[in-house]
Specification:
This protein has 11 helices and 11 strands. With about 325 residues, it is of the alpha/beta class. The chain is globular and about 65 Å long. Mean pLDDT is about 90; it is low at about 15-20.
Length: about 325
Amino acid sequence: MKRIYTLALACLLATGCLSAQAGTYPDRPIRMVVPYVAGGAADITARVIAQKMSAGMGVPVVVENKPGANGMIGTDLVAKAAPDGYTLLLDASGPLVVNPSLYKSVPYDPLADLAPISQIASYQYALVVPSASPIHSMDDLVAMARAKPGELTYGSAGIGAGGHLAGELLAMMTSTQLTHVPYKGNAQALADILGGQLSFTFDTIVTATPHIAAGRLRAYAVSGPHRSNALPDVPTLAELGYKGFDVTQFQGLLAPAGTPADIIARLHQEVVKAARQPDVVRKLADEGGNEIVAGTPAAFAALLRSDLQRYRQLLRQANVHPE
């Protein structure tokens, strides 16, 4: 009995300490890990959201870029971090739902090792060509691809990146052979499409829009189920006759699994408040082409499960394997 009493007392003390710790949360800076290089779509979102969360939580929320291995290095870092609310992950679809379907093994389990806080936004891609391209429409692109199998090239941020998946889906739906050129990041792919070294590419709208506005790129379609606010005159591929074409990805905030529920609730409250502020909507949605979601942890968890299935099926059908 004495032993049972001692164990019960220890549990009560531990629970009390945890509640006290959660009650004072946060009392020091929070780091928000982005598993990509600075300047990309996820990094832009992270810096906008982190600034607003800093103001709301009364402590600095510091963005740290930890790129590498298709986003797996930064994602794994957070998956193995202490579940105390001071290390967060602003991630996108690639590391969480594509990589586990693409690679034989990844160093983390996105469902078991991470706690969803909120899907912040969804985003799609713009199919763009260089301004000097002889391709003047989607019909032109598909006709050229059929006439010259394998000669049309498109770039992406790497094997399994959203732009790559969109290209594979386009090739499947048009029964054409397109040559994928993987890069180590979106910036390199963008530089080569601007330089005319690629036939076309699917670029994130937030990075493509300034070049479209300046006349350096032409956009012929977007990859999602509806048009983008940032490119309202550009049709969806479904509108152009490719029914069911949808490569839409997400950005979301997560914590290590085991983070106390009251800390998750506080973080959810702050990220939703940040994402819905008018200047954030203007920056990320109206200018950046994102659709603000700011959903619940449960909804984000459901999305992770469904997208794991969706991309596993696409990768299998397209016979995509990491190089």
